[in-house]
Write a structure and sequence with these properties.
Number of domains: 2
Radius of gyration: 17 Å
CATH architecture of the largest domain: Orthogonal Bundle
Number of helices: 6
Strand content: 15-25%
Oligomer: single chain
Shape: elongated
Distance between the termini: 19 Å
Number of strands: 4
Largest sheet: 2 strands, antiparallel
CATH topology of the largest domain: Arc Repressor Mutant, subunit A
Amino acid sequence: MKNIRIGSNQALWHLSCLEKFQFIRSKKIGNRRTFFKFDSNPEEDEIHYYLKVEVVQTIIKFIEAENKALKITEIADGLKKNHNTIKKYLEILIKLNIIQIEKKNNRNLYIINQNQYSKFKKLIVRSK
């Protein structure tokens, strides 16, 4: 809102008008109301949203660079991030089928589902 120099109430009013006339649509993801192009696929909203979150991009890039299945502690230590933060986003990525769990010696190891990730990575690049 700073970029367009209007207040939050004015921005919400404009967004509601755009939504009313079906230029955009909104969806609540987590504790945020997020806006999407009206004609975009609603089933892909969450994946578009989360793949643009910086910490999610960092986690994915880290796992890709390591090129092996990793424990959550290895990811958290490697990124110097809180264990709970990494766990939260890994659970989201598992739900979205971007990350898969491999069991080894009764431990969860996390690896990227390349088929799913490459499919949506292309969608994100196209939507910019």
